[in-house]
Design goal:
Length: 144
């Protein structure tokens, strides 16, 4: 498995899904959040599970409203006890931004503290500069 477990048995993150990863997903994941610009194509029937395609361009950060919508969806999935996989292509930049934002709102952390914690679990996380600016804006929105 090429995924990192961020919340035990609840939240996983990683890069592009390989053919070997689909077996883990089939047996363990009930919701996928895909940040890639290409949609996922599961090799099995995904009926009864959730797929959210939230494409991000690594060169251009999304809006604060985009972040708020995605965080709301992630919280709803968590409340409904889904086992979630969030992924992009490489698993460092866009993913780093999203998982840092999630930790900020979920655990009441400032962006720098959330990033430190995320990097303890996945050391290669590195949100791009524009995305880091958006994390600072998101932190102000959260009131941290």
């Amino acid at each position: 498995m090429s995924f990192v477990e961020m919340i035990p048995k609840r939240l996983y993150i990683g890069g592009k899904i390989s053919s070997a990863d689909w077996e883990f997903i089939k047996n363990n994941i009930t919701a996928i959040v895909n940040l890639r610009t290409k949609p996922d194509k599961p090799p099995f029937d995904f009926f009864g599970r959730i797929m959210i395609w939230a494409p991000l361009n690594v060169r251009v950060a999304p809006t604060l409203e985009w972040v708020l919508r995605l965080m709301k969806q992630l919280n709803q999935l968590m409340e409904l006890k889904h086992r979630i996989l969030i992924h992009d292509t490489v698993g460092k930049e866009r993913l780093g931004f999203v998982i840092t934002a999630f930790y900020m709102q979920r655990y009441g952390l400032k962006h720098d503290s959330a990033l430190i914690i995320v990097k303890q679990l996945k050391p290669d996380i590195k949100p791009p500069a524009d995305y880091m600016k958006l994390l600072v804006q998101y932190e102000k929105h959260l009131g941290h």
